[in-house]
């Protein structure tokens, strides 16, 4: 069988995480092309660590309502 190829290494849509009534990440969309290098910056409490934890499988996103 022929291998599937894509120029996209990572793609997420509507990524959301809530902790009770607090929304830490609200419907984030992200697409990273193969071979690209990105920085993830923002102020304290912006949801950077929470987003990366979801992308790596360490934290489950909140299901869509």
Task: Break the fold down into its secondary structure elements and pairings.
Layout (H helix, E strand, L loop, with lengths): L7 E12 L2 E12 L14 H8 L10
Antiparallel strand pairs: 1-2
The secondary-structure element order is EEH
Uncertain stretches of 5 or more adjacent residues: none
| Number of distinct beta strands | 2
* Average pLDDT for all residues: 91
**End-to-end gap:** 39 Å
Instruction: Report strand order across the widest sheet.
Output: 1-2
Helical content class: 10-25%
Count the helices. How many?
1
The coarse overall form would be globular
Cα gyration radius (Å): 14 Å
Beta-strand content estimate: 35-45%
Brief account:
This protein has about 60 residues and is mainly β. The protein is built from 1 helix and 2 strands; from the N terminus they run E-E-H.
Give a written overview of the molecule:
This protein is mostly beta strands and 65 residues long. 12% of the residues lie in helices and 37% in strands. The protein has one helix at residues 48-55; strands spanning 8-19, 22-33. The termini are far apart.
Characteristics:
12% helix; two-stranded antiparallel sheet; mainly beta; 1 helix; globular; single chain; 65 residues
